[in-house]
Design goal:
Blueprint: H1 3-20, H2 31-56, E1 72-76, E2 80-85, E3 90-95, E4 100-105, E5 113-118, E6 121-126, E7 131-135, E8 141-146, H3 149-154, E9 159-162, H4 176-207, H5 210-218
Antiparallel strand pairs: 1-2, 1-9, 2-3, 3-4, 5-6, 6-7, 7-8
Helix pairs in contact: 1-2, 2-4
């Protein structure tokens, strides 16, 4: 079963309940837009939470599950592409035709990191705690060491552009900070919708004849 579809279903259900609770504040004309805004907000929040669970190791995606990666960079080994997802702390392996093969979680300590290939192994540098993690190409942790600032500054990775999921729909899978940015934008749009709804009906009521207002009040 697709994990992300389950999350989306739950988000839609919660959004519907959340939006329906505001039905007295907003008319049916504005309700669809208000619902879509809430849907985006809750989905972005859920992706941030899921990102935190994945990076911290609380939840690990199955190796056979492909998580969408929005415009990432890939390490080219000649026969495979090793694509690092900072959003979920995960490496996903693709063949030369960009067909997904498998994936595995890596340790990034939730901060800035660098990933590169060395002697057919995948090396992850975690800037936060100056830790160096060495993985096999199948995802086994082989070594854990420390590194210096000079080593960090001198280390450069040769990336190639990965754009299998380059549709704007997958922008939620780019970076956790972006999820909060999207939440802030659409939360502001919700406030504008509520303000516009209030202004529209205030002007409409002001333009109605007094007799019409009395009839509306009685109804």
């Amino acid at each position: 079963m697709n994990i992300l579809l389950v999350i989306l279903f739950i988000v839609i259900l919660v959004t519907f309940c959340f939006t329906y609770s505001d039905y007295k504040k907003i008319s049916l004309v504005f309700m669809p837009l208000y619902f879509l805004n809430n849907l985006v907000i809750l989905f972005a929040c859920s992706m941030f939470i899921f990102s935190f669970f994945s990076v911290s190791g609380i939840y690990k995606f199955p190796d056979s599950y492909e998580v969408p990666i929005y415009r990432g960079s890939a390490l080219d080994s000649g026969s495979n592409y090793f694509v690092a997802s900072k959003m979920f702390g995960r490496i996903q392996v693709y063949d030369n035709n960009m067909e997904f093969k498998y994936g595995f979680n890596i340790i990034t300590d939730g901060g800035t990191s660098k990933v590169y290939l060395s002697d057919n192994n995948i090396v992850v540098l975690s800037r936060r705690f100056s830790k160096k993690y060495t993985y096999s190409v199948t995802g086994d942790l082989l070594a854990k060491d420390e590194f210096s600032d000079d080593f960090w500054n001198s280390t450069k990775s040769k990336y190639v552009l990965f754009s299998k999921f380059n549709s704007v729909i997958f922008i939620f899978f780019y970076h956790p900070v972006l999820c909060w940015f999207i939440c802030a934008i659409f939360f502001g749009l919700n406030k504008i919708i509520l303000w516009g709804h209030s202004l529209f009906y205030h002007r409409r009521d002001a333009a109605l004849p007094e007799t019409s207002k009395n009839v509306c009040d009685k109804e």
